Automatic annotation (TrEMBL), chain A:
Highest rank taxon of the organism: Bacteria
Organism (species): Sphingomonas prati
Protein name (record): Nucleotidyltransferase family protein
Pfam families assigned: NTP_transf_5
From TrEMBL, chain B:
Name of the protein described by the UniProt record: PqqD family protein of HPr-rel-A system
InterPro entries (UniProt xref): PqqD-rel_X (IPR027599)
Protein species of origin: Sphingomonas prati
Lineage top rank: taxon: Bacteria
TrEMBL record, chain C:
NCBIfam families: HprK_rel_A (TIGR04352)
UniProt keyword Nucleotide-binding present: no
Annotated keywords: Kinase, Transferase
Name the UniProt record assigns to this protein: HprK-related kinase A
Keyword Kinase among record annotations: yes
Organism: Sphingomonas prati
Length: 331, 95, 285
């Protein structure tokens, strides 16, 4: 394992551990943080720690960047709110934008990318029309992808705003309809929390369930350390009472339990005793997550391919996967 | 159909350069170069003035500026077009 | 990474790592007179083999680092020093938030800065290099850094990148000892780096208040025309890689710059004419 990756997780958990690092050790950890999109988060955590001048400079720069990403993300959410206000449907913010809008600790210094929202499935057509009317357009005009998306995916095909050049992903549930676990989207919507401007975010437990589902089922774990930090913050803020039961209602108890175990192992999250030991498979996930080195490179290419295939399998039953890959390859 | 009311976002810092108002919109972080009558329209529906329809904006503009010789309908049409542009760029929202 | 070097150019410290020795050796030579950086670098650049075997077979340098352009094409190993320059430019352009960055050359005289903004081909780099041989201090050939609090220009005097005819032009003004190796067949043609003189390096931490902004354009009949602040503002936002991300600070800094410093659009048929025009405009301030 690279020391930079270990230093990163240990210092995020307990910032005081960085005191006494020499320049080379700082350099490697900061570089790894940037590669994992945790620069702003790390800079926030290091506030209040006595830092060498050049590290303080790096942190200041990282905080300005994070503030800019936050502003852009919240503005994108506001413009989506304006476009959809007249429809009267609940619009639930997901992931980083939700953490920022909701004033959650997971939002501090967080690097935020595209806007993700969750709306009722029967409102999808109206939402699509309203966004197109307000200046968004489709990213990929490919008929096969489009048909696949609409029938099986958990979101509209990606939309991008013409003048702001930012993407929005409109979800009607949090996992593809072809995936094995089938979360209860209606329940998530029903229990969502209203924010001051009228937008919504998921309730505390659902936020953790969504983050865990996203972490394991929705990708090849690229960005795993950041997603796991989100879960660490979310659990820290709302605790785990009733979490496993809520996760079970969505068929996602294994994912949430794994997230809890890994967060405890990497970040020292306070979790119930049953989540305080890693399984053999957990260790593979941890290996994959800690695959960044002190130059910002991904050093586990072999593991990455295995995870990519696995993540596709999780979203599609094998026969369908074969057909999808065949059609993709033929084009 | 009744016209919609619009209101401008919070006060924006503005620097005048050669007759243009160069304004900074904090919420979006965007900078806009605005030519007359856009700055005047924005001022007429600022948070301190409250939301207004195009016709109401015309009334406020007439009270603030000398606009003899401009027919109400013409001015209202121009105002409506500018409001549409301002809404698309986010400086103004329906209220 | 196997080979690495630390560089400090003005206020910016880079760590450049490479899978091959040659680009690092070239950087070591170009930057031999610069003080060594201390502490933690601001940015990391990686010159990497695209695939493991490409380290040796048709070696091809992928430019990566803290900030990466996914669509960037790799370069020949023979052009490794250019790859390093591109890598450093990229980190600064995409990551910098401490200063307003302008795509411009800059020179200093009597504590005041002349800023020359323009695209590739405008001649801004050559002009700055020539003025530096005529009593001006070179502050930079590619990026001007404007302090967000004070509006002062900071120097970023990297090795000047000269292309094609500009190389021959500068050989007439500066000793060959200050030139790096010539690269041929680069995406921009012939390329040679010119090391800044000792004064530029020794004084690279001295800021200077901008006193004149020029938009030079090489190739036309001699002409100089004052530019209005609104036009200057718009053109400088286009010449900046980080105006937008800086938000209010960028807005305040740039509006202050264009409303307090005169801007002139200059056309010139040759360097001698340009230099004379510059001296004339500067004296008239």
């Amino acid at each position: 394992m690279s020391r930079a990756a270990d230093d990163l997780t240990e210092v995020l958990a307990v910032p005081g551990r960085a005191v006494g690092f020499d320049d080379a050790r700082w350099t490697a950890m900061l570089c790894a943080a940037l590669a994992e999109r945790l620069a702003g988060t790390l800079a926030e955590r290091l506030a209040g720690v006595a830092l060498p001048d050049t590290v303080a400079t790096w942190c200041d720069n990282a905080l300005v960047q994070a503030a800019q990403e936050r502003r852009s993300a919240l503005w994108e959410a506001e413009m989506a709110r304006r476009a959809l206000a007249a429809l009267g449907v609940p619009v639930v913010l997901l992931k980083g934008t939700a953490y920022a809008a909701g004033g959650l600790s997971a939002g501090l210094g967080r690097s935020i990318g595209d806007l993700d929202i969750l709306v009722p499935r029967d409102a999808l057509d109206a939402v699509e029309a309203a966004l197109l009317a307000a200046g968004w357009e489709w990213v990929k005009p490919d008929p096969y992808d489009d048909a696949y998306y609409r029938r099986w995916m958990h979101e509209l095909p990606p939309l991008i705003h013409t003048s702001r050049d930012r993407m929005i992903d409109v979800h009607h549930t949090i996992l593809p309809l072809t995936a094995r676990p089938t979360p209860d989207a209606a329940l998530m919507l029903a229990d969502s929390i209203v924010l001051p401007d009228g937008l919504r975010m998921l309730c505390a437990h659902d936020r953790i369930v969504h983050a865990a589902a996203h972490l394991f089922a929705d990708g090849d774990l690229a960005g795993g350390l950041r997603n796991l930090w989100d879960i660490h913050c979310l659990i820290g803020e709302s605790g785990t009472d009733g979490l496993a039961a809520r996760a079970a209602m969505h068929g996602l108890e294994p994912a949430v339990a794994r997230a809890g175990r890994l967060a405890h192992a990497l970040y020292g999250t306070v979790v119930p005793e049953g989540w305080q030991r890693l399984t053999v498979v957990d260790r593979l996930f941890r290996r994959r997550m800690l695959a960044v080195d002190g130059w910002g490179r991904d050093v586990r290419r072999g593991t990455r391919l295995a995870f990519y295939v696995r993540s596709h399998w999780l979203r599609m039953p094998p026969a369908m996967l074969a057909r999808h890959l065949w059609t993709k390859w033929r084009r | 159909m009744a016209a919609r009311r619009h209101i401008a976002d919070a006060a924006m810092p503005s620097v005048t350069m050669e007759g243009f108002a160069v304004v900074f919109h904090a919420a979006s972080g965007a900078t806009h170069l605005l030519a007359s009558p856009v700055p005047e329209i924005l001022a007429a529906i600022g948070p301190d003035r409250g939301a207004a329809t195009p016709d109401e904006i015309v009334t406020r503009l007439r009270a603030d500026y000398d606009m003899d010789g401009e027919a109400d309908d013409d001015v209202a049409a121009v105002v409506a077009e500018r409001i549409a542009e301002l809404t698309a760029s986010g400086l103004v929202r329906a209220a | 990474m196997r080979h690495a070097i630390g560089l400090k150019i003005g206020p910016v410290a880079f760590r450049v790592g490479s899978d091959w020795a040659a680009p690092i050796a070239a950087l070591q030579s170009l930057y031999r007179d610069y003080p060594a950086p201390v502490g933690v670098p601001d940015y990391t650049v990686r010159l990497e083999a695209e695939r493991p075997w490409r380290r040796w077979v048709r070696p091809s340098v992928a430019v990566r680092g803290d900030y990466i352009l996914p669509e960037a094409l790799p370069l020949d190993l023979a052009h490794g020093v250019l790859a390093a320059e591109i890598g450093m430019n990229l980190q600064l352009a995409l990551g910098e938030r401490r200063w307003l960055l302008l795509h411009a050359s800059s020179v200093e005289r009597d504590g005041r800065a002349l800023i020359m903004s323009g695209e590739s081909g405008s001649g801004k780099s050559t002009l700055a290099a020539v003025l530096a041989t005529r009593g001006w201090r070179l502050m930079g050939d590619e990026f001007a850094l404007i302090d967000l609090a004070t509006g002062a220009a900071r120097a970023f005097p990297r090795a000047t990148s000269l292309k094609n005819a500009a190389i021959d032009e500068m050989l007439r003004h500066a000793p060959e000892a200050r030139f790096g190796a010539e690269l041929t067949g680069t995406p921009k043609g012939r390329l040679r780096h010119l090391r800044p003189d000792a004064t530029a390096i020794a004084r690279m931490d001295e800021p200077a208040m901008p006193a004149l902004i020029l938009f030079p354009q090489y190739g036309g009949a001699e002409a100089a025309e004052g530019m209005g602040s609104a036009e200057a503002f718009v053109r400088l936002t286009q010449a900046s890689t980080n105006y937008g991300p800086l938000g209010r600070a960028g807005y305040d800094t740039l509006t202050r710059l264009v409303t307090t410093v005169p801007t002139v659009a200059v056309d010139y048929p040759d360097t001698a004419t340009a230099v004379a025009l510059v001296e004339q405009l500067w004296d008239a301030l």
